[in-house]
């Protein structure tokens, strides 16, 4: 359908499961892509799979102001402007109760998941104003609307980006810039494998395996399964395209019904 024909999209966290799915879908729909992550080899592979005529990359730490400004500048230099920002970079941290949670890990999660989004907004919004508007999509989570034991840093960060989104939506509206969050439930990604492994390791019981841990999580989702990255990417595509032209300041769940009932 070429729903993003002629548009330039910046995607952070572009080598993760959701980031890669979004990059490929956006390219199929006509977008030119500026991909951002820390792993240069993985970025090169994603660019090769899409095509250098359609995608470029910048290695950057999204928590660093200079590097954040640099990836925005690189996108503008390579493609002529920015129409879409997918602020998707994020980390899960560790699993521990608040008294036991490592301070350095807490700080790193907040830095990547919140400061990284704030810096993306800070430097992308002026470029989008020059373009006459655009769409910003921030990756939050079902953890952004509820609590999860032993995940204080991640939950805090995903609540925080909803606040950022709401402020940015109000500031951006006069300039034609729309801002929304996408909030996935557990998705088939590396991040969920990490969380499952950490939860499993906490049990001194051979009957508790990564597979049984995953099954117990899936059973709490009304659709009885994890989502896949492509399902999240399709919501991101809708919010990035002109089909969502009257959508801003919203929280869009991709959660198999998890948020509809008790958590």
Automatic annotation (TrEMBL):
Domain of life, source organism: Eukaryota
Gene3D superfamilies found in the cross-reference section: NAD(P)-binding Rossmann-like Domain
Presence of keyword Oxidoreductase: yes
InterPro entries, A to Z: NAD(P)-bd_dom_sf, Sc_DH/Rdtase_CS, SDR_fam
PROSITE patterns (UniProt xref): ADH_SHORT
The protein, known as: Dihydroanticapsin 7-dehydrogenase
Sorted UniProt keywords: Oxidoreductase
Family, per entry: Belongs to the short-chain dehydrogenases/reductases (SDR) family.
GO MF annotations, alphabetized: oxidoreductase activity
High-level lineage: Eukaryota, Metazoa, Porifera, Demospongiae, Heteroscleromorpha
Species: Geodia barretti
């Amino acid at each position: 359908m070429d729903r993003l024909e002629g548009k330039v999209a910046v995607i952070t966290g572009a080598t993760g499961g959701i980031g890669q799915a979004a990059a490929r879908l956006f390219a199929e729909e006509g977008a030119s892509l500026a991909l951002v992550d820390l792993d240069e080899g993985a970025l090169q592979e994603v660019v090769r799979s899409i095509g250098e005529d359609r995608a470029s990359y910048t290695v950057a730490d999204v928590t660093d102001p200079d590097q954040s400004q640099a990836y925005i500048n690189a996108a503008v230099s390579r493609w002529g402007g920015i129409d879409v920002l997918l602020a998707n970079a994020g980390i899960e941290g560790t699993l521990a109760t608040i008294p036991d949670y490592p301070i350095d890990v807490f700080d790193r999660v907040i830095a990547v998941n919140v400061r990284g989004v704030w810096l993306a907004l800070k430097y992308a919004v002026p470029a989008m104003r020059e373009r006459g508007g655009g769409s910003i999509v921030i990756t939050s989570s079902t953890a952004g609307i509820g609590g999860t034991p032993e995940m204080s840093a991640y939950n805090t960060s995903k609540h925080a980006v909803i606040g950022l989104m709401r402020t940015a939506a109000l500031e951006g509206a006069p300039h034609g810039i729309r801002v929304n969050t996408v909030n996935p439930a557990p998705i088939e990604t590396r991040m969920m494998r990490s969380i499952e492994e950490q939860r499993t390791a906490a049990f001194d019981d051979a009957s508790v395996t990564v597979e049984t841990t995953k099954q117990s999580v899936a059973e709490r989702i009304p659709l009885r399964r994890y989502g896949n990255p492509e399902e999240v990417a399709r919501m991101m595509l809708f919010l990035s395209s002109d089909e969502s032209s009257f959508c801003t300041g919203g929280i869009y769940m991709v959660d198999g019904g998890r948020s509809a009932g008790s958590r």
